[in-house]
Protein: Ion transport 2 domain protein
Organism: Haliscomenobacter hydrossis
Amino acid sequence: MSLFKSRNRPPQEDSNDLGFGSKLNAPGERLLNQDGSFNVLRTGRWTWTPYQSIVEMPWSSFLMLMLGFYVLANFVFAILFYLIGPDQFNGVGEDSEMIKFADLFFFSAQTLTTVGYGHISPRGFWASALASMEALLGVMIFALATGLLFARFSRPKSRILFSKNALISPYHEGYAFMFRIANLRNNSIINLEAKVTMAWLEESHGKYTRKFFALPLAREKVNLFPLNWTIVHPIDENSPLYGKTNEALEKMQPEFVILISGYDETFAQNVHSKSSYTYKDLICNGKFKPMYYEEDGHTVLQLDRIDEVEVLAAENVALPK
């Protein structure tokens, strides 16, 4: 008799869960923020990744960090020069101690950047040794800063605009879930693909279970992306949205996780973008207003109109059964 016959078969895993699993079951809890970041707070352990942090931080933070480090480095070396003695440097003023320190601070800046105007120069052994160490450190710092700056500029990153709201709109003879996207940059993205997964909560005996379903789209891929793209999921009998009212949708707490990927010809690399919509971001029985028009032989795309919606009716909408 086989020993394996008495063992229970493990439950089949949901291949549509995108890696979130089915245990995140708190009502109102979001899986993915609208900016594409995960709604996850990491605690317990921490690892220092300065390169990743500096490359991914906003430009304003990066510039402030570089400026702050430059001022701090010059301030530290100015203190060390001052401790060696202002008399160990030619050209330092004979006025107040504050003027002497200021002269040494600007001498540090000239040494760190290897400018070397020559107005102030070291004449003692320790002053010359410290100045040479700062010059070496300056070469390394600016080489590192140049590398970080290049990494930030050369990092492939898409700038896909998502509409603020998703809609449940009349579509052909029924309804459809839809949202639209546009390329904020004036570059070429080709072979753009979209994947939409719906996550919702089901209650059973007072416990919630999160379900996932990959929504079939009317069109999952476009070869070119010069205008906006309205991504549509037709609601039929196979859709988890089929037959749902506003009240039913609110109870389900659905979240629509969006994954967009394509090939950026500027960077010659694949790029991606992600976002999500919750029930609070849904507008039932509305339609998007046009974003582009023709003028003088050209097509004008108005990116600031990506969020404009016309609500068709205010009453409760029951999706067809």
